């Protein structure tokens, strides 16, 4: 099959207008009658009017005595009125039927009993005081809800009170989801993750999209994974066009030679849009077959989600006649400059946190295949297609993926990567559910610079002072001379060379890194690990330019370990815990000090106090030590 070519790509706005204009689809949703008790989340297909009034009798709204209001006129403290029980006054409780001939209630605390069946009042009441009249809430025949109204749990109470026990609702739009790709494996059919073969990919997109369909009010059927066979996919789509309201072909929408979505849709119907100027999500295909909307959904997870939320979800809402869900928006400040391509509208995933009086945004990796950039994101910044990026600290709007209250209770940690930060985050969430930790890996120097710019609460740092072997203090004094900080030790950790199991290259230490048969993977400039490496190379009089792979950088210890595991590199400098996690071998080089640098203005805040409390628990220390290569004998100590 020849490769697809994106012709006449549309902007996001143009694509939406084409897709939704005049509701081109003719697949009208059928009606069905369901019980009110099961109706939450469903959309009314016709208006609902009350069958009875609520309340359907005059009811006492207070405990007291029911009276005819006119019989109380003229009563005042100097001239109280006497009433006879069961003649012109009747004891009632809240919710009781008002006795015949009465139209007001006097609260029991304002009633003075003066004898058997005799009471005295010293103030008059007005007609219908403390009485719920017939129809005060609902009047029979009045409109309760119009058609296209989405039923909420509150609505159930109104419907039942109005005598409505069954309602007519629209059937949920039926969506067929077809995952495609010869490399895909259904997780339900994979007994153990370890059984996954090289080149195979666990198929997750269809399960994510299925739950999004439900969230927007639709129902779904998931087809079995289909191989990259255009004719077989075409047969399934052709049959489905007669019985579904929408069809989603997942994968096969880009320009690859085995991407069949466009060809299938085109052969059975009409292509409306092939390619949208957004990132992620550019390859999305939109078309119709028998006036049924059919989508070619990109195979990368984030692209699939962005395509769903911008096109497929809104289409389901259009079918149901409901309003698209809208996320809360807030002003945020990017922590650094962010470049972007002209002509492309980008959906940038960011971590957010309230630092001082501003919400700061730290970009996450942009890869469309990284599902964690959505799960870890607190918000999305949409970068317009007519700008080349965002300036640092210039306010922009972000859509929140999490509640604002969660953002305000987030501890922003920036700096050197360490596996114990993940443990710390989990322990804090377990101990204090409303506090979260957001960490960004920019290296130790990057963490100190984040403090200097006022964009974090905590910086993780392990900067070695070559002159005396101490950690962090001299760097803080040099780079943060005007900022008062506290330095708290998190861990001591073993740093060394991460090598493949069995050490096939026979590496003995740093001195072997300049060997011609060895490829090294480095950490980024400014990281404590990079500073340690350069110090050791200087000590051994090794020129970095002689090391094969010295310019190749990763930003976390785990990424270094993955590079070694995959064979991209033969060796990298990192922590023992990363080597142990991936069952790699390790050559110790040094035990270093990893500290948390905390500005004093945050040190006494509730969130930081909670963090420090957790660090000092035996449970946290035990979990850290179980990772391997960590020592907690100084954990929690204030070093400065």
The total of beta strands comes to 37
Classify the secondary structure makeup into a structural class: alpha/beta
- The appropriate CATH architecture of the largest domain is 3-Layer(aba) Sandwich
Overall geometry: flat
What's the mean pLDDT score? 92
Percent of residues in helices: 10-25%
How large is the share of residues in beta strands? 25-35%
Taking Cα atoms only, what radius of gyration do you get, to the nearest Å?
A: 34 Å
What oligomeric assembly is this protein in? Answer: single chain
- End-to-end gap: 66 Å
Q: Low-confidence parts lasting 5 or more residues at pLDDT below 50? A: none
CATH fold name of the largest domain: D-Maltodextrin-Binding Protein, domain 2
Count of alpha and pi helical runs: 17
User: Could you name the CATH class of the largest domain?
Assistant: Alpha Beta
Could you describe the largest sheet, including whether it forms a barrel? 9 strands, mixed
Compute the number of structural domains.
Answer: 5
